Amino acid sequence: MNTARSTGDRAPQQDEEGHLAALGLVLLMLGATLVRYRRHEPAYMAVDLAYALLAAFVTWGRFGPDPFTG
């Protein structure tokens, strides 16, 4: 009897948590960008915005019309 699970076999709850984590990271990084804007720190603001854009890409990949997760 083979009890090993393949790497692609995930519970639906785990997939939903990944979607919400990606969305939460986008919101967190947008908040960080706003704080950097208020403190007049443009270099750090650009870095936070870049992270927000990368997280948005991951979120789009998870929620989009053709999700990466299959």
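Above is the first protein from milestone M3; the second protein from the same milestone is given next.
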Amino acid sequence: MASFTPGCLRIEQAQMNRHEPSYALRIEYEVANDPAKGQGVQFRLHGTIEGKTADETFFLPEDQVRPSALPRLTRMAQSYLTPPAKFAPLGSDKVYEAMFDDIQAKLSANSGDSAKAEAQG
């Protein structure tokens, strides 16, 4: 099950068989600026995977968000599992598109704000 509200994606799965992990995770994100990498998105993955507490954060520059966020989040989640268990790749639900649309809107709004501030200054 997955649900989306701006700034937060929640994903949950009950264990169906011994090869599929159970998890309850939140992916929170916000536009941020990194002094070295510029504008981008700060992500936080937290919750539980197979009863283990997960809490990971990372930053991606704006041009790397769409191609890199879901694979990186999937790898982070996989790191909490004991082989041979596999974490299915994230991204097969429409809520992920809603998340990326929200991120794009936030990045665009933030870029416009800084451009307006520079023009006024």
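Note on the second protein: The chain has one domain: 2-120.
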